[in-house]
Write a structure and sequence with these properties.
single chain, mainly alpha
Length: 65
């Protein structure tokens, strides 16, 4: 699965710098995984790399290493 981060491609583009804070991106990624019973390998590129790293650090039960 590939997730567009907020502000990229066809995803929502909220106004204001605060809308793009890292915790908001993390809050967007979790629901994208749906109700998977297994953990996921999270990969990110560029800004998505920071989101992937922070997601793995804050949601260890949802990620594989």
């Amino acid at each position: 699965m590939a997730v567009d981060l907020r502000g990229y491609n066809l995803s929502d583009k909220p106004k204001g710098v605060d809308a793009y804070a890292l915790p908001n991106h993390i809050a967007d990624v979790g629901p994208s995984l749906g109700n998977w019973e297994d953990s996921a390998v999270i990969v990110g590129h560029d800004w998505g790399g920071m989101v992937a790293w922070y997601f793995a650090m804050t949601q260890p039960t949802l990620t594989d290493n």
